[in-house]
Design a protein that fits this description.
The chain is of the alpha+beta class. 32% of the residues lie in helices and 23% in strands. It has five helices and seven strands. A three-stranded antiparallel sheet has the order 1-4-5. A two-stranded antiparallel sheet has the order 2-3. The protein has a two-stranded parallel ribbon with strand order 6-7.
Length: 167
């Protein structure tokens, strides 16, 4: 389980064009608004579970864990593999983790090893499909584009299954 930031920047950029032509300028909406997106992938089925939040912290991560627990198979434990973000192991999570210790286990990846986390591949594909080479005048439009993509992966599917490398 990892997270992804989607952000719009107030920048100007140009691309190379032949010298006899005028350089095109691409303007971006001047904003620093952000939205957090928690996500988890079930590699065996290709199922994705996500939750938007205003920011990443214990207060927004705990409801995401609760959402994951609602999606687990009846009678099965849930093992969440996480990176080492501070809010993944914060003391404030202890009451929640204690209350759900029979059905939830958190395992942590070694530091600086995103290549071991299948959801990182999902974030990369999401950016390619939803945000690259697109202009979003409003943050809400960006969120909607990403949310629409996440909805297509909400149920078991071969795209995410293949992406996560489970045979």
């Amino acid at each position: 389980m990892d997270e992804c930031h989607f952000q719009q920047h107030g920048t100007r950029c140009a691309m190379w064009v032949p010298p006899e032509e005028t350089d095109p300028i691409l303007l971006h909406a001047p904003t620093r608004k952000t939205v957090a997106l928690f996500g988890a992938v079930q590699p065996a089925s290709g199922r994705v579970c996500t939750r938007f939040a205003p920011q990443f912290n214990v207060g927004t991560f705990e409801p995401f864990l609760g959402q994951l627990l609602r999606h687990r198979a009846r009678g099965r434990r849930l093992v969440a593999i996480l990176d080492n973000a501070a809010y993944h192991s914060a003391r404030a999570l202890e009451p929640f983790l204690t209350a759900h210790r029979e059905v939830l286990q958190l395992l942590f990846l070694p530091p600086y090893s995103p290549e071991l986390n299948p959801v990182e591949r999902l974030w990369k594909l999401t950016r390619r499909l939803c945000t690259h080479n697109r202009y979003f005048p409003q943050l809400e439009e960006l969120v909607e584009a990403v949310a629409d993509q996440m909805d297509t992966w909400r149920y078991p599917n071969p795209v995410v299954h293949r992406l996560c490398g489970i045979i």
